[in-house]
Specification:
Blueprint: E1 2-6, E2 12-15, H1 22-37, H2 41-54, H3 58-71, H4 76-88, H5 92-106, H6 129-143, H7 147-160, H8 164-181, H9 184-190, H10 204-214, H11 219-222, H12 229-245, H13 249-262, H14 268-279
Antiparallel strand pairs: 1-2
Helix pairs in contact: 1-2, 2-3, 2-4, 3-4, 4-5, 4-6, 5-6, 6-7, 6-8, 7-8, 8-9, 8-10, 10-12, 12-13, 12-14, 13-14
């Protein structure tokens, strides 16, 4: 196992060499080769970086993107992907700089759909260059407790969102950021856009958490033994935050500690839980 980063609590974060699904490796290899054949060099390099990250080699992914930026300094997609992995390695300031550069470069341009490594059951990519940039920029600011700037990114993301999956992702973090700022009235207004019948393909956890915040669901309604580790981190951080903003801070920190102890350190729910624990 090799050390990829140091957590905000001072722990070494290590990655094993992943055994990736054959379907994922085959798809990325095919997409990477096709991009090369089509002379889409930056797209080829992005797939190489994504594969490195899927394998847990986040530092290698950053190196691939950094080398590519040397050759293609005006390609916003490279900054967006490198910024994502800077968040993974807890380098939030570098991430913010990259996302701001990406936003500067794509300003006024038509948005670009981003292909998934493994397609969802509907084979419908849901995110784009712009929504991913605003989402991750908002997250990086949120993790630094700069909620005002986080909200600016989320507002841009909501405008760019083209489906309910991306909308609930932005509303989830936007709601929590507003509550942390003490703007409970505006946070409540944000929940008016959320209902139980939204047409979702992927972001069920964010949707369920928003329904908890709205009072439609209870925490017991959305937690079960079949949740994946990533879902536990997502749900764990969100439910911890729900307890926190409702005055049950001890319970919140207990949940966040459980998320941290589970060890899924590359997930955003883990990183956010870690950031909360680091503030104690």
């Amino acid at each position: 196992m090799n050390v990829q980063a140091i957590s905000l609590l001072g722990d070494s974060l290590r990655s094993d060499n992943q055994t990736l699904p054959e379907e994922l490796v085959s798809r990325i290899d095919s997409l990477s080769k096709q991009a090369l054949q089509d002379s889409l060099i930056t797209q080829h390099l992005i797939w190489q970086g994504r594969l490195a990250a899927y394998n847990g080699n986040y530092r290698s992914a950053i190196d691939i993107y950094s080398d590519a930026i040397e050759d293609f300094p005006t390609e916003p997609k490279l900054y967006r992907h490198r910024g994502h992995r800077y968040i993974t390695l807890r380098k939030f300031d570098r991430a913010i700089k990259d996302f701001e550069k990406a936003a500067e470069l794509f300003n006024g341009e038509e948005d670009i759909i981003e292909q998934d490594g493994l397609p969802n059951p509907q084979n419908t990519p849901l995110s784009s260059l712009q929504t991913n940039t605003w989402y991750h920029l908002g997250l990086a600011h949120y993790l630094k407790e700069d909620y005002k700037k986080a909200n600016e990114a989320y507002e841009n993301g909501i405008l760019a969102a083209q489906n309910d999956d991306m909308l609930v992702a932005f509303l989830y973090w936007y709601y929590m950021s507003l509550r942390r700022m003490g703007d409970d009235v505006q946070a409540g207004k944000m929940l008016e856009a959320v209902d139980a019948d939204m047409g979702l393909i992927e972001n069920d956890s964010y949707h369920q958490l928003l329904l908890v915040f709205k009072g439609v669901f209870t925490p017991e309604d959305i937690l079960d033994d079949d949740a994946t580790a990533l879902e536990n981190a997502t749900l764990g951080y969100g439910l911890g935050n729900w307890h926190y903003i409702n005055g049950r801070k001890d319970r919140a920190y207990q949940i966040w500690q459980n998320v941290y102890d589970a060890g899924n350190w590359a997930s955003f729910g883990f990183i956010a839980s870690e950031a909360e624990l680091a503030k104690q």
